[in-house]
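Quick log. Single chain, no ligands specified.
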Amino acid sequence: MKNLLFALWHYRGFVLGSVKREFQSKYRNSMLGAAWTVINPLAMIVVYTVIFSQVMRAKLPGIDSTFAYSIYLCAGILTWGLFSEILGKAQSVFIDNANLLKKVSFPRLCLPIIVVVNALLNFSIIFSLFTLFLVVSDNFPGWVYFAIFPVLFINILFAIGLGISVGVLNVFFRDIGQLFTIILQFWFWLTPIIYPISIIPEQLRVYVELNPMVNIISAYQTILVRGEYPQWQSLWMVLAISLLLCLIGLSLFRKHSGDMVDEL
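-> predicted structure:
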């Protein structure tokens, strides 16, 4: 592990250069440029707010703020966007960089790191604007806001652990990538992002709570909507699952890294 970390640090220039090139190429020949990072999730939030706000506002007990449902949506959609971007790109990262893997010698784990850094860059842009909105609308939760960072760490760890595991398997079984894209769509609607978990019947709620993203998204919403610290004990199991997925992903990668190039 020490040698791996040293190798990754040695190639930090390659990682940062790749992040810069991908960010620039994404918005090249675009009049609005990086503004699309904001426009896409903002359009989704506006649509959901218009469609669901009147129905769901009454379903957020103890919340009187005019912007409560909009903040609730942003807390869920923006952080889900980070999760889905990391997971979506990680599950195809080795296939998408097949030519690079065949021609250039570098630590292969640089690729998932590039995925995470790119996703965090996009997330930081939109979330900074969301934070500014919280301040201007007098809905900033105060010092509780900084509880987001440990939740964010668990979120990223879970996404990249699952992403690397699926990404390695996807090299050998291409149907996995296609299937996982569909699963991600269902996963979004099975996570209380648009709706609060309180509207789910008691007999079904126990099954919904098996979804690790429920606790993560709920933690963000508790911090940003209610201005309260999340229930940290609910995140310990998610952290354990995330670490396990990272170990599984690294194990799969080490075992099959040589075979992956042949498959690509």
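Residues 233-263 form the longest helix (31 residues).
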